[in-house]
Hints:
Chain A has a single domain (2-90), classed as Folate-binding superfamily (Folate-binding fold, 2-Layer Sandwich). Chain A contains 2 helices and 6 strands, in the order βββαβββα. Chain A has helices spanning 35-44, 84-90, and strands at residues 2-5, 9-12, 17-21, 52-58, 66-72, 78-83. Chain B folds into 2 domains: 19-31 and 113-187, 2-Layer Sandwich (Gyrase A, domain 2), CATH 3.30.1360; 33-112, Alpha-Beta Plaits, CATH 3.30.70.1520. Chain B contains 4 helices and 11 strands, in the order βββαβββαββαβββα. Chain B has a 6-stranded antiparallel β-sheet, with helices on one face. Chain B has a 5-stranded antiparallel β-sheet with strand order 4-5-6-3-7, with helices on one face. The A-B interface holds A 7-9, 12, 14-15, 61-65, 83, 85, 95 and B 42, 62-63, 75-78, 133, 146-148, 153.
Amino acid sequence: MIINHPLLGPRDAQEFVYLGDARLIERPDGMAEGAPQAFHDHVYLRDNPAGEHRELWYHEQGDRSWLVVTRNTVTHEITGVELARDVARAKGRSR
Amino acid sequence: MPEHSLKAVTPLGHAAPHAETFGPITIAEVTDVALASVAARQGRAADVAAAAKRIGLDLPPPGRHAAGTPCSAFWMGPEMWMVEAPFSTHEDVVAALKPAFGDAASLTEQTDAWARLRVTGADLPRLFERLCNADLARAEAGHAIRTTIEHLGAFLLVRSAAEIDVLAARSSAGSMHHALVAAAKSAF
């Protein structure tokens, strides 16, 4: 499998480590009302789609950047790769 | 202060840098380069770029190496570079760079974290295609590629078509040297 790194171009998937669902970026506010339930959902609840999935990959044997990869879990076709930093900032996070 | 008379050894454990030739390929240790990583602190990328410009240091774009005098640099990650300087004049490389970058960047000395093996010879892609999946046939001079060789992380700095520096963790320098020697003997 080849992941088309936004900065470095096509790289072999063996350079990367897989983390999981890209929703992990959306860490709840620990000080907000209902935080225990929000953290329970954040840590334990995942969709497991047969089809398009947004997931976090880490370029461990490369530039050490986190990527959000949109991958079809049935065909392994990769339709989008973004820097996780950019995805988080687009959601209004500071870093 | 006690008097120490300790002898420095090279990453491969020799008194002087070791070089050996295998057919058209020469693999040599290089120990005269001091290293420091420069990582821009959050939101300070522009300050780091300005500071580098002031001291004539070229911070290259992703995947590249920029040679300079006295300091060169290669890209390691987003807003992070490794600076190379002559060991003879910049042994304390962080102290030399800190005044320029101030609190805009975090500097870490990395000189003794890495072993530099300089591989010279013709047809180097034929050697490295046995070791890693870096596309050296298409990498011209000035590319800096991080990859794995025999499960060890390494930087390949393409200095010219006939000269590539392999930066490997100093603690596994012997293993990396063995991998390069085995591939050189097998390829040529």
